[in-house]
Write a structure and sequence with these properties.
There is one protein chain. The protein is an alpha+beta fold and about 450 residues long. The protein is built from 15 helices and 23 strands. It has 2 domains: about 240 residues, Bira Bifunctional Protein, Domain 2 (BirA Bifunctional Protein, domain 2, 2-Layer Sandwich), CATH 3.30.930.10; about 90 residues, Rossmann fold. About 35% of the residues lie in helices and about 25% in strands. A hairpin with a 5-residue loop joins strand 17 and strand 18. Helix 2 packs across helix 11. The protein is globular.
Length: about 450
């Protein structure tokens, strides 16, 4: 499967899906840019998530909170004091690595609640199995905790950075919790209700691993459902089922998904399960569904001094709502969708084609329009007319570079569902050739029927 990962990374770079950030300067580890097709795919994924979470649920509203928040937010959430990973330094090449990653690569799994002493004992017991990812040495320093929050000097003078640090947010959900009262007061929402958000988060990841699966700057798609304490677990099970179905609806095969239960919960959690996807490097977390209890609102009420309880307008009962959380990485979903879509097919003539068989709703380009020959003005003009009409409805692409066969292959590699070719007959009969990405079958469609034709095909 490592070979498949290399092919996906290569395709993403070659076809403009994902670029290493600052590549002309040698890149920047664990940071990536989305190219022209990548940003379209990412936007389609986020739009699909938003429709499933907000548009089709009348008791869920959206939010876009700030990346910068008051430093007290991160004290209340526990990130300042406890948001850390154990790191060890290779004594030979001085590369720092996360200890849980070193142990995992050696087939040893560490509990995330282990102390530094317990982690170091585990390292000692498995010393011969550990391997530096850079030089291969197994000689490491003792593990030390490293805080994952990214510090900023926003609003501070020179020299005040460490005294009064501000932070880039380490997760998006805290922006939801601190706006709980604002949303409650400004809308007609009543418990149970949810707040959904898509936004950037930042973590001081030391080791770049597995392409865009683990990034320092990443995007989360989260929904926090505020519920009555007595309804929390019922709501939790409901959302587990709904989020599993979301991925099936996204075109992911059931055999490439599985559940993973967190065995050692943080003290405030009632339950925590992950949906894992079978990435080229194995099953890894895609989305977490968590029953968080009332910890989050209680902490922010305590640190802010604000009242964050809820009074039922019918029963007059007053309580702090429990939170049911669904949290998924947009980047991980992107990688899962590309992995699922990546297909190599043997052709009848013995050649091979690479095609990204995206669900049509996710495809970056929906329709590509070709003139049969680029040096025939009448074909180019008619192709442009069709392209200009279709682009008002869907994301389309005009392509006249190379022979039609090569254009088909380019569109296959970016996952375009349909290609339209304008030939000399089109000037006579007012019809074009439409080619299907998946079946490669071609049919003649009247130009004035194209909008209805694609409307039916792309909306299914």
């Amino acid at each position: 499967m490592a070979g498949k990962m290399e092919k996906i990374v290569s395709l993403c770079k070659r076809r403009g899906f994902v670029f290493p950030s600052s590549e002309i300067y040698g890149g920047f580890a664990a940071v990536y840019d989305y190219g022209s097709y990548g940003v379209e795919l990412a936007n389609n994924i986020k739009a699909t998530w938003w429709k499933a979470m907000v548009q089709t649920n009348e008791n869920i509203v959206g939010l876009d909170s700030s990346i910068f928040m008051h430093p007290k937010v991160w004290e209340a959430s526990g990130h300042v004091g406890g948001f850390s990973d154990p790191l060890a330094e290779c004594k030979k090449c001085h590369t720092r690595s996360r200890v849980d990653h070193l142990l995992e690569d050696a087939g040893v799994f560490a509990d995330e609640k282990m102390t530094e002493e317990e982690i170091n004992k585990l390292m000692t017991e498995n010393k011969n199995k550990l391997k530096c990812p850079k030089c291969g040495s197994n000689d490491f320093s003792e593990a030390k905790s490293f805080n994952l929050l990214v510090k900023s000097n926003l609003g501070n003078f020179v020299g005040d950075w460490d005294k009064e640090p501000s932070y880039l947010r380490g997760e998006t959900c805290q922006g939801i919790y601190v706006n709980f009262k604002n949303v409650l007061d400004s809308t007609r929402m009543k418990v149970p209700f949810g707040i959904a958000q898509i936004g950037k988060a930042f973590r001081n990841e030391i080791t770049a691993r597995q392409f865009i699966f683990r990034k320092r700057e990443f995007e989360q798609m989260e929904m926090q459902m505020f519920v009555h304490p007595g309804k929390a677990m019922e709501t939790y099970e409901d959302w587990k089922a709904r989020r599993w179905q979301f991925y099936l609806d996204l075109g992911i095969k059931a055999e490439n998904l599985k559940w993973h239960e967190h065995e050692n919960l943080v003290f405030y959690a009632k339950a925590a399960w992950d949906i894992e996807y079978n990435f080229p490097f194995g099953f890894k977390e895609l989305e977490g569904i968590h029953a968080r209890g009332d910890y989050d609102l209680t902490q922010h009420a305590k640190f802010s001094g604000q009242e964050l309880s809820y009074r039922d307008p019918v029963t007059n009962e007053k309580y702090v709502p429990h939170v049911v959380e669904t949290s998924v990485g947009a980047d991980r979903t992107f990688l899962a969708v590309v992995t699922e879509a990546y297909t190599e097919e043997k052709m009848e003539d013995g050649s091979e084609r690479v095609v990204l068989k995206f669900p049509k709703k996710l495809a970056p380009i929906k329709v590509a329009v070709f003139p049969l020959m680029k040096n025939k003005p009448e074909l180019v003009e008619k192709s442009r007319e069709i392209f200009d009409a279709l682009k008002m409805k869907w994301m389309c692409e005009f392509d006249d570079n190379g022979n039609v066969g090569k254009r088909y292959r380019r569109q296959d590699e970016i996952g375009t569902p349909f290609c339209v070719t304008v030939d000399f007959e089109s000037l006579e009969d007012g019809a074009v050739t439409v080619r299907d990405r998946d079946t490669m079958q071609q049919e003649r469609i009247k130009i004035d029927e194209l909008e209805n034709y694609f409307g039916n095909k792309l909306n299914n």
